[in-house]
Amino acid sequence: MSNTYLVALVGSILVLAGIVELLRRRQLGEKYAVLWLVVGILLLIFTVFPGLLTGIASGLGVAVPTNLMFFVGILFLVGVVLHLSWEVSRLENETRKLAEDQAILRLEVEQLQRDKQENVTD
């Protein structure tokens, strides 16, 4: 076994262990859990079986297996960024609606307090 292989294997195991630990501590949401577990497992599989990436690349007509890995990685990251942008937009809309609802409730509470004070002074 070469040093590069051992470093890659240890790195893959650490990434997968980190993902599992984030899930265990509930710091990674369930909706992202499957996605990141699949990424961690695929990383470990391609580390343990390096010829697999070469076989897939040649099957798809990609000359350099690393290029395929980077292409798939970039597509994955673009998908993650797009999804997170959608989530941020949704949360911004929800935050704005909650702020509007809270302002309406505050106005109603102030009106009730004024009405109550007027009734007490009468």
From TrEMBL:
Keywords of the record: Membrane, Transmembrane, Transmembrane helix
Source organism of the structure: Actinophytocola algeriensis
One Pfam family, short name: DUF2304
InterPro entries hit by this protein: DUF2304
Transmembrane segments: 6-23, 35-56, 68-86
Protein name in UniProt: DUF2304 domain-containing protein
